[in-house]
Amino acid sequence: MKRKEINSARTPVYRDAGFELPDAGTTSDAFAAETDHEREPDLYIYSRYRNPTVVATEEAVMATEGSGWALLAQSGMAAIDISLSIFQESGRKSRWLFFSEIYGGTLSYIASILEKRRGLKIDFFKPTGADYDYELLERTISEAKPDLVYFETISNPLLIVAEGRRIIQLAKKYGARVIIDNTFATPLLWKPLDYGADIVIHSATKYLSGHGNLTAGVICGNDKELMKSAIEYRKFVGHMLSPDDAYRLQTQLSTFQLRFRQQCDNAAKVAAVLYSSPEVSSVLYPGLDTHVTHKAAKDLTGGRGYGAIVTFDLRGDTKDEKRARRDRFIAAVYPDIRLIPTLGDACTILMPVESVWGVKYPEPGLIRMSMGFEPGEEIIEVISRGLRS
Ligand SMILES: *Cc1c(COP(=O)(O)O)cnc(C)c1O
């Protein structure tokens, strides 16, 4: 049965696996056009290649990021897999430099996929104390001559803010390409493509979708050849986002700025309350001028915001005391603030840092809190209850 054109205000969810083609001649033309991996072919063929709902959402992401291209994938990890794989060429030895302060899943991907299965040898750049040493970074890059540098704008869970423009400049000076995971900063705080980054990725599971109800990844770029290579890789590996998730991402993206501003505001308010509490020994939030990378954050974002995560350490004389203090806090803020292992959700949620990243960050009093967009006073009341417990 032929579909009637409907005057829908949004691109609807097209759940077709395959699209109807009129005749054999058109079919061969459509397949020929598809192998060029352009962003907008005339006809859709198959939803793993390209889907109209996904394309409409990609256009919304391009508008948010200000990028020439945006591709969606099933998850942030799928976006990372695509972005890295397009830089791998057979017969060429890849020299890749990753900052060590990156998402745990990315570190596991490096160990399990890049090193164990693909045989790459990966170099890491570690912070010196609580910040990156940029002179050391220049020496590292000039000696190791990586062809790719990968970092996150704001690190997890310690919230080290990278001097993004400086890192891009350094990488370019020595001929390296740059991939940035900008999930924590979002395009509202910084747009790395404007400063010469080659690829920007986001876990759209977090702030871009913002309701903890889907997983998705974003790859943005302006380099046509790179992005066509990403389309090809996504198509053959099957990392395409589903039309249902694309539709939800598209509608939720329209409230992204409103939500994220409120989340950043809430983070600032909560950080101030925690900072003045005798129960808290330190607050890691780049908006506080006591944070080691406060100046870097201010320069990078122009003071538009400092992200929506606050990590803090509860006081205690011994490790056991800190652990008990932490557990009392978590119990007392329940059920208004729950322990949910993600971030960028609509509601404020938390994670005990030691339970997940204990090997790397063993402090038992550390809690990472991801601010929701509830009214700030409500969250502060709940947190005050937790601090009194
Ligand atoms: C969550 C996250 C990812 C992975 O995204 P998924 O959508 O979970 O696959 C990558 N980078 C950062 C910084 C993240 O927070």
Can you offer a commentary on this structure?
This protein is α/β, with parallel strands linked by helices. It has two domains: 24-253, Aspartate Aminotransferase, domain 2 (3-Layer(aba) Sandwich), CATH 3.40.640; 256-387, Aspartate Aminotransferase, domain 1 (Alpha-Beta Complex), CATH 3.90.1150.10. Helices cover 41% and strands 14% of the residues. It contains 14 helices and twelve strands. The protein has helices at residues 24-34, 52-65, 76-85, 104-115, 134-144, 164-173, 186-189, 224-237, 243-253, 256-275, 294-301, 319-333, 353-357, 376-388; strands spanning 69-73, 96-99, 122-125, 148-152, 177-181, 199-203, 217-221, 280-284, 309-314, 338-339, 349-352, 366-370. The strands form two sheets. Strands 1-7-6-5-4-2-3 form a seven-stranded mixed beta sheet, sandwiched between helices. The protein starts with 23 loop residues before the first helix and ends with a helix. The mean pLDDT is 96. It binds pyridoxal-5'-phosphate (PLP). The site of pyridoxal-5'-phosphate has 16 residues, from α3 and α4.
Secondary structure topology:
Blueprint: H1 24-34, H2 52-65, E1 69-73, H3 76-85, E2 96-99, H4 104-115, E3 122-125, H5 134-144, E4 148-152, H6 164-173, E5 177-181, H7 186-189, E6 199-203, E7 217-221, H8 224-237, H9 243-253, H10 256-275, E8 280-284, H11 294-301, E9 309-314, H12 319-333, E10 338-339, E11 349-352, H13 353-357, E12 366-370, H14 376-388
Parallel strand pairs: 2-3, 2-4, 4-5, 5-6, 10-11
Antiparallel strand pairs: 1-7, 6-7, 8-9, 9-12, 11-12
